[in-house]
């Protein structure tokens, strides 16, 4: 089975840190924040094998770019594949205006 190298962009890491700090500080739930961070990171790690199991986004623009969306709890992990790499581009709260946030990033 083909193995992929998972690469997390600076933007995606920043997104994950924002999620952690929001839950830990704003919601005052540091243990929940660490648990959520870990669940997202663990899900991302599974993309090293068969990332194509996650379907392409249905919007024309994102689908044409090969962008895929994986849901982890209430968060959306966006990525695309290039040769032997999976590139994580964003991690966003699913209830936010995702289309706008993707355009702005």
Features:
four-stranded mixed beta sheet, alpha+beta, YaeB-like fold, 105 residues
Explain what this protein looks like in three dimensions.
43% of the residues lie in helices and 25% in strands. The protein has 105 residues and is α+β, with helices and mostly antiparallel strands. A 4-stranded mixed β-sheet has the order 1-4-3-2. Helix 1 packs antiparallel against helix 2.
Count of discrete structural domains:
1
The DSSP helix count reads 4
What name does the CATH topology carry?
YaeB-like fold
CATH superfamily: RelE-like
Largest sheet: 4 strands, mixed
Helix content: 40-55%
CATH architecture: 2-Layer Sandwich
The computed structural class is: alpha+beta
Topology pattern, helix = H, strand = E: EHHHEEEH
- Global mean pLDDT: 91
Apparent shape: globular
Percent in strands: 15-25%
First-last Cα distance: 33 Å
Name the CATH class: Alpha Beta
Q: How many β-strand runs?
A: 4
Compact summary:
By secondary structure, the protein is α+β, with helices and mostly antiparallel strands. Helices cover about 45% and strands about 25% of the residues. It has a single domain, classed as YaeB-like fold.
């Amino acid at each position: 089975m083909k193995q992929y190298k998972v690469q997390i962009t600076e933007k995606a890491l920043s997104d994950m840190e924002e999620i952690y700090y929001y839950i830990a500080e704003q919601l005052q739930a540091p243990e929940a924040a660490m648990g959520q961070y870990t669940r997202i990171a663990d899900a991302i790690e599974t993309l090293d094998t068969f990332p194509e199991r996650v379907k392409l986004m249905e919007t024309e623009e994102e689908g044409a770019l090969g962008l895929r969306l994986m849901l982890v709890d209430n968060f959306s992990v966006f990525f695309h594949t290039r040769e032997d790499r999976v590139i994580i581009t964003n991690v966003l709260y699913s209830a936010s205006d995702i289309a706008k946030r993707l355009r702005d990033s």
